[in-house]
Structures are given as C-alpha cells and as structure tokens.
Amino acid sequence: MTHEMPKLPYANNALEPVISQQTIEFHYGKHLQTYVNNLNNLVKDTEFADKTVEEIIASAPDGPIFNNAGQVLNHTLYFLQFHQKPSRKEPMGTLLEAIKRDFGSFEEMKKQLSTASVGLFGSGWGWLSADKEGKLHITKEANGNNPWRNGMRPILCIDVWEHAYYLDYQNRRADHVEAIWNIIDWEIVEKRFG
Ligand code: MN
Predict the structure, then answer these.
(1) What spacing in Å lies between the alpha carbon of 27 and ligand 1's midpoint?
(2) What percent of the chain has pLDDT over 90?
(3) Taking the mean position of all CA atoms in its chain, how far away is CA 2?
(4) CATH value of 93-193 in 3.90.1570.10, 3.30.1300.10, 3.30.70.100, 3.55.40.20
(5) Is the model's pTM score more than 0.85?
(6) Are the beta carbons of 136 and 108 closer than 8 angstroms?
(7) 38: CA distance to ligand 1 center in Å?
(8) Of 168, 18, 149, which Cα lies nearest the Cα of 78?
(9) Is the pLDDT confidence value at 1 over 90?
(10) How remote is the CA of residue 122 from the centroid of ligand 1, in Å?
C-alpha cells in the first residue's frame, strides 16, 4: 500500500494567528511530506509493505520504519483535529462525561495536557488517549511515539517538536500550547472517542 498525505479540511492560512500559513507550509507541506515519503521508501519489499500505519506502529521494532510510521499517524491526527472557527470551545456528551469522571473537570484535563506538553523534554507529543475500558489518560511521548503502541486509542494530540511552533512562537512553547486550545474541533475529538 502507498501511504498518502491527509487532505487538509482548511486553507493554509485558516488557522492564523494560532498557526501561521508559513508554519503549515513547512510543517504539513515539508515535514509531514518527508515522513510520508520516507515511510513509503522504507517499507518497500519488507514485511511492512502492506500494513497500515496503525499495524506498523503496533508491531515494528524501534527504528526508522516505526519512527516514520509514528510521525505519519501523529501528524494525520494532529492536522485533522483543527477548525478555524470551532462551533464550541469544549467537548460535550460522552466525552465530556468521561473527562469529568477521569480528571474532575474539563479545565483540569486541559491543564494536565498543557503541563505535560510544555514540560516534555526535547521533541515529542502530549496525548489524550482512551484505554480499552474507555478510561482517559494523558501521556507524553518522545519523538515519533504514539499511545497506539501501548494499546491505547489516541484522540487528541499536541505536537511540541520545535518545528510545530518555532516560526510563530520561537522559544515560547507554553504560549503556543495555550493558543492551540482555540482551534480544537471537539466534534472530531468526540468522534475519535466514539
Ligand atoms: Mn510535527
């Protein structure tokens, strides 16, 4: 199978000022394209050639194939979770109930995911995921790792590799993470939670 770029459901400048057009052009157009190209080249003629990115992440040994598959899935989840004008600034329904059950409140979940993302040392991701029982967890993962590798279903992510924010925020990672909450499309996150 050939791995493809996700199609962005918004224009390159639609997420400004939270994420600039220039950052989309580099982060989506160049970084993600490179991960997709690398993955397609690496899996050729291997046991992973016909596997989905989820299957590769669950089974590949640590190394280039796993790293690039992780980054393809991570960025696909990342870029498809945004909306230029979200209809709501918080989730509802079963997701909101689960957040209240597992974190006490929506504000507390936001705080914990922001703290995990801002405090991650080096390059990586902050995640909100559901385990097999539907319980929610916040984790931070280094480099291209994805909670899927540990049997969890990722539903929301914050990319804190410097390429995600440095053009717009330079060293101010915390300001970027704070701003990200304004463009989360909760309808998408709710669907992932299912
Ligand atoms: Mn990235």
Answers:
(1) 6
(2) 99
(3) 21
(4) 3.55.40.20
(5) yes
(6) no
(7) 15
(8) 18
(9) no
(10) 13
Report the topology of domain 21-79.
Helix Hairpins (1.10.287)
Q: Around Cβ 81, how many Cβ atoms within 10 Å?
A: 20
* Angle, CA 121 vertex, CA 179 and CA 16 arms, to 5°: 20
Instruction: Return d(Cα 98, Cα 63) in angstroms, integer.
Output: 35
Ligand 1 mean position, distance from CA 101 (Å): 31
Measured in angstroms, how far is the CA atom of residue 159 from the centroid of ligand 1? 6
Q: CA 56 to CA 72: how far, in whole Å?
A: 11
What would the pLDDT profile of 88-143 be if each residue is shown by its tens digit? Answer: 999 999 999 999 999 999 999 999 999 999 999 999 999 999 999 999 999 999 99
Give the CB-side neighbour count of residue 60, counting CA atoms within 13 A.
28
Element (H, E) at 94: helix 93-103
Cα angle for residues 125, 128, 133 (degrees, 5° grid): 135
Q: What residues sit around ligand 1, an ion, with C-beta below 5 angstroms?
A: 159, 161, 164
Residue 150 clears pLDDT 90, i.e. is over it:
yes
How far is ligand 1, taken at its centre, from the CA of residue 191, in Å? 23
- pLDDT value, residue 96: 98
Amino acid identity, residue 169? Y
The continuous run of DSSP H or E covering 140 comes out as strand 136-142
